[in-house]
Design goal:
Keywords: Membrane, Transmembrane, Transmembrane helix. The protein is of the alpha+beta class. It folds into 3 domains: 130 residues, no CATH class; 57 residues; 77 residues, no CATH class. 58% of the residues lie in helices and 13% in strands. The protein contains 9 helices and 7 strands. Strand 3 and strand 4 form a beta hairpin. Helix 1 packs antiparallel against helix 2, helix 2 packs parallel to helix 5 and helix 6 runs antiparallel to helix 7. The longest helix has 40 residues.
């Protein structure tokens, strides 16, 4: 397996950033177009099922409106999105340093569907564009090159986010206030015992979260330390990068509880999972740091 022969390659982050900028307008146009298309169709359906019987002329007019709305508000925005997406992915997968990483990041960012999927086949592309896209899949047979990022320092420390913790404290204080008000009026008006218990629980339960959040805000030691040599976490201590593998940052939707981000990796001692939801680092930033530091260690 040889290295892809190209004089200059860009980083995955650069490609993703450009992709987000290029595809923002097509997404907005598609969303607006879809709204007007469905709005027109809804009005026609209401007329069909709720209004008087349609005459032949009215049916002809409704058919013309439907075709017009389909072309203007659905097909043309979809064509615009398909062409812009195709232009970006052909450029990105030809110029990026790590196509394996780009494939994962582009899919997670919803910038383009993976090769061979249903959505990939549904994109409107010319025969030449499909041929180029197919040819670019050969890049997955080459070893990915490493491009250093000079903006990333030799060491990065990750702490709990004071902003996230402050928001948690404010929400907890809100529940304390609500519980206190309920308790006050329940006692003042000699309310039911059950109401007094509910008020007390609502007022006292958030105190645990307030204390925990304040402790994390005052903590001086970082939760993660990444550098050119390895990774430090409280559960594992310092590990060199050659002892860390299958690392990934996953996103899990917990419904009303929000979104949870988990950093997982394997090492000689087993598998470690760290909840980074309240850390002062994003999923993409952490993934970028890991790629750069591991690349520096290996080079």
């Amino acid at each position: 397996m040889t290295t892809y022969q190209k004089t200059s390659l860009i980083s995955v982050d650069e490609a993703i950033t450009k992709g987000r900028k290029m595809l923002l307008l097509p997404r907005v146009v598609m969303a607006i177009g879809l709204f007007f298309f469905l709005f027109a169709i809804t009005l026609i359906l209401i007329g069909v099922f709720e209004g008087p019987p349609f005459t032949a002329n009215i049916w002809l007019i409704c058919t013309g409106i439907t075709v017009f709305c389909f072309v203007v508000f659905f097909y043309l925005p979809y064509l615009f999105w398909s062409k812009r997406t195709t232009r970006w992915k052909l450029w990105a997968f030809d110029n990026v340093d790590d196509v394996h990483e780009l494939k994962i990041m582009a899919t997670e960012a919803h910038l383009c569907p993976a090769f061979g999927t249903v959505m990939d086949k549904l994109q409107i592309q010319s025969a030449d564009e499909r041929e180029q896209w197919l040819k670019l899949q050969e890049r997955f047979n080459f070893r990915s090159g490493f491009i250093d990022d000079p903006d990333i320092p030799s060491t990065t420390e990750v702490f709990y986010s004071k902003l996230h913790l402050t928001i948690n404290v404010l929400f907890a204080l809100l529940f304390v206030a609500i519980g206190s008000v309920i308790e006050y009026f329940a006692v003042k008006n000699d309310g039911k015992t059950s109401l007094k218990i509910v008020g007390a629980v609502i007022a006292t339960a958030p105190l645990y979260f307030i204390i925990r959040s304040v402790q994390r805000m005052l903590k001086k030691q970082p939760e993660l330390v990444l550098n050119n040599q390895g990774l430090f976490t409280e559960p594992t201590g310092l590990l060199n990068w050659d002892l860390i593998f299958n690392e990934k940052v996953t996103r899990a939707d917990q419904g009303k509880r929000g979104v949870k981000f988990t950093f997982s990796f394997q090492h000689p001692g087993g598998i470690t999972h760290i909840d980074i939801s309240d850390f002062n680092i994003s999923k993409s930033r952490l993934e970028r740091l890991i790629r750069v530091y591991k690349g520096r260690y290996s080079s």
